[in-house]
Amino acid sequence: MKSARFSPSIAASVVGALLLGMTAAAVVGPGAVDSYAASGTALPIAHFAHLVVDAPHGHLYISGGAGTNGILVTDLDGGNATTISGEQGATGLALSADGTTLYAALPYEDAIAAISTADLTESARYGTGAGTHPDSPAVAGGTLWFGYGTAGAGGIGSVDGAGTVTLRQDSGSWAGPPTLATTPTPSGVLAAATQTGDTSAFVTYQAQGGALTRQAAKALPVPDLSDFAVTADGQHLAVSSWANPSDVRYRTSDLSVDGRFAMPVAAKAVAVAPDGTLAGCACNGYEFEAFPETGEGFYREYGFDYPLRLAAHGLAWAPDESRLYGVAVDASGGTPTLTVVRTPETAPVRLLGSATDQLAPGETYAFRAGFDAPLSLGAGESMIPGTVRITRYDDTDPDGVLVPDPTGTPARPPVDFFGSYQVAGTAPLTGPLSFRVDYSGGGHYGPAVRTFDVPVAKYAPTIALTGPDTGGRAAPLTVTGRLGWPHAHVPTGAVHVVKTDLAHPSGYSVGTVPVAADGTFAVHDTPQTGGANTYSVTYDGGTSYLPVTASQTVQVSRATPGLSVTTDAKSYRSGATVKITAHLGTTYNSRLVTLYAQPAGKSRTVLKSGKVDAHGNLVASYKITRNTVFSAAFAGDYRYAPRTVTTGATLTPTVRTQLQYPLRTTRIGSTTYQVFYKSEVNLGFNLQVTPRQAAGCTSVYVERYSSGAWHQVTSQKCVPLYSDGWYGYVRALKLFTSNDRYRVRGLYTPPAKGAQTGSARSGWIYFTVRPGSLE
Q1: What is the pLDDT of residues 311-326, one digit of tens each?
Q2: H or E stretch including 732?
Q3: Around Cβ 421, how many Cβ atoms within 10 Å?
Q4: Please, is 103 exposed, middle or buried when counting C-beta atoms within 10 Å of its C-beta (0-12, 13-18, 19+)?
Q5: Per-residue model confidence (pLDDT) at position 706
């Protein structure tokens, strides 16, 4: 069954059509959902450093770093802003394990502030020592840890429950102040890192009893470290890198590669929710995504208004994963803007549909509803979770009727990634057809509703005819045909046949023929008229289809009539009148003949056209001026075929000749001879051709009589005539034998190509040459 895309009547567009056992539609896979442009809230601070979510108290804590003198506090929607003042240049933030205290690093004060989350007042301040510049606080194993130092030297310090600050808690050396990270819920896992040129140094620890135990240390291929996170189970690290984005998971126990995340982490920030979901981006920083730790795909992609980009440390989760927060800044690090994402772990679903292509009224249809989402199914899942309801709408049920028990088909990548549901039925005879698909949503997939309009319209089936190219007159013949539909069709309509032939140029009906269930039919006929017999077959379409017409032409044999054309001679002089006679033998219903003349090098013209006389003759006359082809044409009739015959008439030129200056004549036998004397020096022979062609030529032949016969003694072959049509031949008289008998004549030859006349010879002129001179 053939399928086609169609546009839903409610949604903006369909990005593709679902294919399962169908053809002519696009395959759609995970990830075909557009990014969502979330509206942002401008934060009333000049710069951004860190963000912490305190859901139990309904607060967001936002630090601004250098140049600020307090910590911004908003509600969970980014509104109702207030400031915890006196926290000069606060950078890194962390909540205590019980959530009662907010710790803020004050690198420019060489201290860490402890702030009550109940009344938003500073309850303690812990000095870390002059020039330590503490940053990046993290609570792990019941202890507050922080990184400190400057470029070239750094370390990890701690603050215990009594407020005692201890530096150099890690026996190793650091090239700068390390950034710390721990799990989103209390644990003893702590990780530290700092960039060291083209790589970044990472160390993992187990924190317990106020002490750190190294688990692993390794340089990782991160040339632009800005943020990293520890997964919820404490087993892996997620490291963001713009220059070297990767989906690699690093095991905390030995920092070796251990599988891959569902998406690469490329942006400047990464955050892990308590249930293990990650936030980051495999993009250019203008968006961020939420995605599961393993599997394929993501929940949704969120975009910032250009030119804002995701800030370093700019992602944070609500503890119950109900919200995801993202902070963007401009290229200078200013204009901090907060984006709040609700239900970040729910992937949007786009419903797709496909239906029988070229669906005619009354035909059986198949409608299939499928799904597209950016998040792939989990391991072991073969069907998108949730329920599907399909409602059919047509003129009979304008308010819709629920289609019971749609047939579910499990996912079959790469054709179908989420499974599908199919319903079948019969298209209405009138009016439109549409289906509303309601998907309840389930698991990590959101609900969706879409209505699809299925085009129902009459279309023309294909039609093919097969028959003989030729046939005999009065002999039976059969033309067969087949109607074709792209799928199961409605048995409706009839085939009507109109035939045209020489006797019926406007055509006449030869009846209606039945159509078999497979669309075949046959036309039987015994033609009585020869020539082209054309059978025009029209399928009327019935109640469901458009008419379609095809034709088949059979050339029916006709007898060959007797026809001749003659002239009263074969050769004529210029200006002579030619009598042309056409003779037509037996025919059926036409006695018309046409005579034509075509002079050499010119177009054919009609001499005469009409019925032959009682003797079968048609006579015409023609004044000939050059070689001419005469033809007689019979156009044919119902039983005799057309025929044309030709004959040619040649124009023979006139050749005039003369010998120059003979002195006397004499008779030898019955022939008169011109007499020349050798004292005259030369013999001159002139000839003239009328009419002639410029490309024609003349030849001169001289013969001598001896031993009782004439023999050629010299010649001059194919030389051009003069412009006036003459040619003069000269021969010295001394070359002739005295008292012998001679004769001379000329030959005109027309050009080999485009000759307008025939060749022509002059008569012989006889002469003799005597010695001496006439006395």
Answers
A1: 999 999 999 999 999 9
A2: strand 726-732
A3: 24
A4: buried
A5: 95
**pLDDT score, position 775:** 66
694 contacts: CB under 8 Å, gap ≥ 6: none
CA pair distance 333, 335, nearest whole angstrom: 7
CA angle 53, 54, 59 (to 5 degrees): 90
| Residue of 321, 180, 287 whose CA lies nearest to 237 | 180
Q: Which residue is it, tokens 């025939």?
A: 758
Those residues with Cβ within 8 angstroms of residue 225's Cβ, 6 or more apart along the chain or in another chain: 179, 193, 194, 195, 200, 239, 241
Strand duo 571-572 + 643-651: pairing: parallel
pTM of the full predicted structure?
A: 0.70
Distance CA 313, CA 90 (A): 14
Can you tell me the distance from the alpha carbon of 736 to that of 685, in angstroms, rounded to the nearest whole number? 14
What's the confidence (pLDDT) of residue 39?
62
Q: Which long-range contacts (CB under 8 A, 24 or more apart) does 212-215 make?
A: 212/145, 212/156, 212/169, 212/170, 214/170, 214/171, 214/172, 215/252, 215/253, 215/254
123 backbone φψ class: left, alpha, beta (φ>0; ψ -120 to 50): alpha
Residue 79 burial by Cβ neighbours in a 10 Å radius (0-12, 13-18, 19+): exposed
Q: What is the 3-state secondary structure (H, E, C) of 70-129?
A: EEEEECCCCCCCEEEECCCCCCCEEECCCCCEEEEEECCCCEEEEEECCCCCEEEEEECC
How would DSSP label each residue in 244-270?
S-EEEEEETTT--EEEEEEEEE-SS--
Asked whether the predicted pLDDT for residue 416 surpasses 50, the reply is: yes
Place of tokens 């009585």: 528
CA distance 396 to 398: 6
